[in-house]
Amino acid sequence: MKITRIEPLVLGNLTYLVLHTDEGLEGIGEVRMINHTDALLGYLQEAAPNHILGSDPFAIEDLVRRMYRNDYARAGQIAMSAIAVVEMACWDIVGKALGQPVYRLFGGPVRDRIRTYANGWYTVERTPEEFHAAAKRVRTKGYDAVKLDPFGDAYYELPAGERRRAIGLVEAVRDAMGPDGEVFVEMHGRFTPAIAIGIAKDLAAFRPGWIEEPVPPENLKALAKVARRVDIPVATGERIHSRHEFRELFELQAADIIQPDLTMSGGILEARKLASWAESYYVLVAPHNVGGAVSTAACLHFAAVTPNFKILEHFNDFAEPFIKAAAPGNPEVLEGAFALPTGPGLGVTLDRDVVREHPRREIHFDLFKEEWHLRQAARAAAPR
Hints:
By secondary structure, the protein is α/β, with parallel strands linked by helices. The chain folds into 2 domains: 3-99 and 350-376, Enolase-like, domain 1; 103-339, TIM Barrel (Alpha-Beta Barrel). 39% of the residues lie in helices and 17% in strands. Strands 5-6-7-8-9-10 form a 6-stranded parallel β-sheet, covered by helices on one side. Strands 1-2-3 form a 3-stranded antiparallel β-sheet. Strand 6 (182-186), helix 7 (193-203) and strand 7 form a beta-alpha-beta unit. The longest helix has 22 residues, at 77-98. The protein starts with a strand and ends in an 8-residue tail after the last strand.
């Protein structure tokens, strides 16, 4: 079997890659390429004749090796995202060819339920009352864990009034989730170590499951300083794109939970290798997952076979309905967890009609405001 054609498609700001083969099988990969969609599409167009076309989709390790080794830029976000969407699509093809879910190709599941937490649910006014009500609505959807960033547009420091406001939002969400629910606090790399340590002490009374990326991600020694001084677990890793970058994180013992994004760090197999490495340091894995149904499917297969998996991030129940409709097939969240996928490959199918109805939009994400800004009218199709 050989890969004969690549087909990139953009839905809103999700990028799909469909790999076509000479035996008629198709595989799907997906990434939400935040603010860099054109860069990814251009990369794929140049990688296709050099690496992808003519490759055997069963020879995944070799294809990934060539795409990584032969790329002068090496392990940046663009390259690792391109590798990831190709790799995911190959696993989808292999699973379909063999009539098996991808997780069976990795040795079979170690769990039959995959815990998940809600994100994207708190697009409301930043008041305790609104956050409390929104968290209650999350509970009614079947989630028993949530994540929030309560810090507004803070950067490095946080004025006393804003600090009280942020802590009040976490208190309201903890109350809404009850004593047995989980509340994770996102910091998005905002703070200096000293400020992050102080905020963590303020948060301790509300028992957050973790504080996430408390300092900017470039300086892992600063992160280690925070980890040594707080009693709350520290999570990070969504902006680390290769296992070589994780090496220092492990050696410094700077985090209790790593959050690799499968779609931006080389795909399912690479994340599986990273998780095995993390396990030797007694570190848990909670994948970063801001994509649509295809990337969620990839994460479900990864979680099924990973002993030190903790919990999966999930946005799609709080996004526009077409996000899930574009690639149906995933189980629904029930009592805070997904059941295992049952279909062959990744278990989802791409609905091209939905993709055509919701073409690319020029959207810019402002990290420190957690806002999406529509730049101009929708474009009819992705560049080919």
